[in-house]
């Protein structure tokens, strides 16, 4: 007999994880119940992935699950929140267990790594799509918003930028390179790591933060707009990996273009006052995550690109619609 929606929920989603102590009631009732500690906010974020728009319908379900959950966890990290609970609304054209098994395996592996528990959801029939609502905890008054940047603050990013775009170009067959390097860059695209420990460490130190999902040049503008300040990025300060430089045959300018526009990095971009510079170094020392100062918050509005403090010697093509000034 064909399996019902209830069989599927029971087999694939219920009791697949270690229970968190703060989950009073998980999958199986009309609602989940969770305990929220006193003096904490719940940070909530939802994202949908739709087949044909955000991934190909025949994409590896393990990678789809990773992408769906990692991008949502990255939003919690960007807020300075600690991941706690997640709900999953899954729409499937058919009950396809060859798809569900690797999807769930990958989903729960990542969920366990970040101690985020699946507490409920919905399972429906229709065109393939995945909607996650994640919830995390952040001490009241310490969430990292986009609106707190102040003139004079330094702008930082974690990790390296650009590897994900290089990996995507390889996946889409728009570029070629030596196979072992290609494998590294493709892995960086598919398995970018949300920076939860950095977000937690930045509480009380960063004035603004967000995660890089559309490319630092597009994302940092949100901090400028929400904080009503201008942003200056020095392209020579963008952190690029040795692998990316090899991929670009040593062409720094090409690597910098990729670093500016690469999406789905899940690196954090944040602003910190000069007074907090030493506190930042102390706070991030234990995370083992590299971070780099890439620019300054200044008076005015908009985003300008510099090269060693001087006007850029090249033009960033195709980004006029972001209102970038190449000065
Ligand atoms: P209801 O009719 O009350 O919406 P459902 O039959 O949709 O309940 O779901 C039964 C239980 O299973 C609920 O607790 C719901 O949260 C959970 N659930 C359904 N689908 C999923 C899913 N894909 N992942 C996790 N939990 C799910
Ligand atoms: Mg339902």
Automatic annotation (TrEMBL):
Binding site for substrate: 54, 264, 319
Keyword RNA-binding set for record: no
Function, as annotated: Catalyzes the ATP-dependent phosphorylation of thiamine-monophosphate (TMP) to form thiamine-pyrophosphate (TPP), the active form of vitamin B1.
Record: residues binding Mg(2+) 5: 214
Boundaries of every PurM-like N-terminal domain copy: 28-138
Residues annotated as binding Mg(2+) 3: 30, 75, 211
Name of the protein described by the UniProt record: Thiamine-monophosphate kinase
Protein residues bound to Mg(2+) 4: 30, 45, 75
PANTHER family: THIAMINE-MONOPHOSPHATE KINASE
Gene3D superfamilies, sorted: PurM-like C-terminal domain, PurM-like, N-terminal domain
Reactions mediated catalytically: thiamine phosphate + ATP = thiamine diphosphate + ADP
UniProt GO molecular function: ATP binding; magnesium ion binding; thiamine-phosphate kinase activity
Similarity annotation: Belongs to the thiamine-monophosphate kinase family.
Keyword Magnesium (UniProt): yes
Pathway: Cofactor biosynthesis; thiamine diphosphate biosynthesis; thiamine diphosphate from thiamine phosphate: step 1/1
Assigned EC number: 2.7.4.16
Upper classification of the organism: Bacteria, Pseudomonadati, Pseudomonadota, Gammaproteobacteria, Vibrionales
Organism listed in the record: Photobacterium piscicola
Residues covered by the PurM-like C-terminal domain: 150-304
Membrane-traversing stretches: none
InterPro entries, per the entry: PurM-like_C_dom, PurM-like_C_sf, PurM-like_N, PurM-like_N_sf, ThiL-like
């Amino acid at each position: 007999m064909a399996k019902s929606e209830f069989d599927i929920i029971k087999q694939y989603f219920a009791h697949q994880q270690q229970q968190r102590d703060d989950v009073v009631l998980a999958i199986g009732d009309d609602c989940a119940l969770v305990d929220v500690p006193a003096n904490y906010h719940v940070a909530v974020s939802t994202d949908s992935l739709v087949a044909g728009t955000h991934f190909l319908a025949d994409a590896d379900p393990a990678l789809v699950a990773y992408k769906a959950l990692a991008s949502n966890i990255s939003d919690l990290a960007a807020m300075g929140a600690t991941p706690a609970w997640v709900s999953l609304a899954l729409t499937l054209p058919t009950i396809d267990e060859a798809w569900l098994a690797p999807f769930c395996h990958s989903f729960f592996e990542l969920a366990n790594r970040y101690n985020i528990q699946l507490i409920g959801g919905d399972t429906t029939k229709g065109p393939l799509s995945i909607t996650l609502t994640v919830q995390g905890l952040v001490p009241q008054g310490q969430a990292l918003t986009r609106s707190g940047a102040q003139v004079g603050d330094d702008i930082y990013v974690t990790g390296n930028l650009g590897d994900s775009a290089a990996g995507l170009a390889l996946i889409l067959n728009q570029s070629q390179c030596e196979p072992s390097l290609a494998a590294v860059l493709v892995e960086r695209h598919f398995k970018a790591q949300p920076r939860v420990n950095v977000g937690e460490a930045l509480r009380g130190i960063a004035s603004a933060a967000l995660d890089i999902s559309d490319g630092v040049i597009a994302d940092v503008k949100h901090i400028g707009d929400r904080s009503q300040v201008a942003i200056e990025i020095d392209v020579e300060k963008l952190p690029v990996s040795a692998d990316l430089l090899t991929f670009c045959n040593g062409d720094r300018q090409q690597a910098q273009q990729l670093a500016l526009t690469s999406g789905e990095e899940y690196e954090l971009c944040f602003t910190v006052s000069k007074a907090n510079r030493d506190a930042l170094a102390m706070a991030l020392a234990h995370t083992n995550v590299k971070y780099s100062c890439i620019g300054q918050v200044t008076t005015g509005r908009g985003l300008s690109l510099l090269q060693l403090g001087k006007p850029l010697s090249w033009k960033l093509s195709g980004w006029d619609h972001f209102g970038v000034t190449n000065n």
